[in-house]
Write a structure and sequence with these properties.
With 120 residues, the chain is α+β, with helices and mostly antiparallel strands. The chain contains four helices and four strands; from the N terminus they run ββαααββα. It is 36% helix and 26% strand. The two termini are 24 Å apart.
């Protein structure tokens, strides 16, 4: 039987635009799709103060669309990526969440135990 690798959700915020406005990309991994979408929403909310009127309105509308949140979580549960793009006067913000597989990490406490001791 083949064991599947655990899934996690890679969250990323990026910005494309003039160098003088360039913001460093940021991201996290989240263990559940709901947490990934929560991070995405908090990151959009944090960008609100620096947005112009039209961009602010589009971001605010997306934040207030609770059906879109449920749809995003459902898409991620089905293994499909989810993205929100926000054009601004100076460039374009993008938030993406993708499902990724992760390799299980070896427990450092078990590293010093010989394999023959683990079999007992």
């Amino acid at each position: 039987m083949t064991e599947l690798l655990p899934r996690t959700y890679w969250c990323h915020r990026g910005y494309q635009g003039p160098v003088r406005f360039r913001i460093a990309p940021t991201g996290i991994t989240a263990p559940y799709p709901g947490l990934a979408v929560d991070w995405m929403r908090e990151s959009v909310r944090a960008a609100l103060p620096g947005l112009g009127r039209e961009s602010f309105g589009a971001a605010w509308a997306w934040l207030g669309d609770h059906r879109a949140v449920a749809l995003a979580v459902q898409e991620l549960r089905c293994g499909r990526p989810y993205a929100f793009t926000l054009p601004t006067e100076a460039g374009c913000w993008s938030w993406t969440v993708r499902v990724v597989s992760v390799l299980p990490l070896r427990d450092p406490c078990l590293a010093s135990i010989t394999p023959s001791l683990l079999a007992t």
